[in-house]
């Protein structure tokens, strides 16, 4: 196996970055969907940004319920890639596509019909309620397309083919950049739809990317070939996939739910603070992209090493990923600290109070980004060894037992007011990184992997 050989030859950094940088670029481009929306909607005013900001955590929550299954596909495919079992790579991919497709349809329907009560639940004010509901309803129709492209990405990443998804994302984001102002403001005979226009533009481009991705998988010329005859659910395989995917889904959904609860805290301070939080959260979503890219690359390479029976190689990848994530993201955090006010003003140029509050949020978070990176890459390592439960428990602990209680106490019981919410982010990042690193160094994950690897690979089922 090429990646395994590269690791044995000592080219760990080159190997890791060859996987990570296209993933990072693809994730940056995908994040650009939200950033482009925020940029153009900011020209409509702070209420438009607030309407999208308040619906974003709910959108992320719904998406995350199915996203864990795509991660399961990455892990399973990467391990069969390490074992050089092409037949099981194709079968696993076919089953993953089917299950994710069914889940995406269910979530799209639920999302559309629950839009209004959900927006009321998170505390959308009367000035933004209608717009937030409209944005959420239109975005819900894109769930199927998003999930289909996500599963394509995940499967390609599992076998190490990371460039192709990046190229597709790049093309669709460029298209979204054109369609966004067109559908928001209109042009000539084309009617503008305001906030709904941003969602319409995203759904169109998501549909194109999904269609291209699924066609590539059916053609089978890029390392994976899915087949309709393999898309009848196999109970034992689905059970194994769910065992991997549910903890990953719970991890991501707990993160999204925590974001939603944070928004409920923020809304009590008014639309300007909601807008500032929305901008800061989007900057955070952009900054977390390198961490997630390193985490996914770690998952892929660790999975391939586990499939090949090389546990020491998996540990070497983990050690290197931790160092790169910590120092790299700390550097990015320092840059964002310096330019925080300029970044906030870029999104909402005509509201001094939003600029001030948003910049403060960024500056409080920024120094802890390296710690965030450490937690993410270690979660990636645990996922690559099929120990998705560890990632879930670390995330749930840091978000629900540290971040939210701190945010509530500091914002409601101290003079910090809404800035108490800001401070909960770096403090929880520190605790999460510390817990993940201590557990990693205990070595329990290695013993667990050695104990169960034979069962995973000998059954012939993902």
TrEMBL record:
The chain crosses the membrane at residues 12-36, 48-77, 97-115, 135-152, 164-187, 193-218, 256-277, 283-303, 324-348, 360-378, 390-409, 421-440. It is a multi-pass membrane protein. GO terms for biological process: monoatomic ion transport. It comes from the Bacteria. One of its GO terms (molecular function) is antiporter activity. It holds the Pfam family MatE. Keywords: Antiport, Cell membrane, Ion transport, Membrane, Transmembrane, Transmembrane helix, Transport. Its main location: membrane. Signal peptide: none annotated. The keyword Nucleotidyltransferase does not apply. GO terms for cellular component: plasma membrane. InterPro entries: MATE_fam (IPR002528), MATE_MdtK (IPR050222), MdtK-like (IPR048279). It is found in: Cell membrane. This is Multidrug-efflux transporter. It comes from Algoriphagus ratkowskyi.
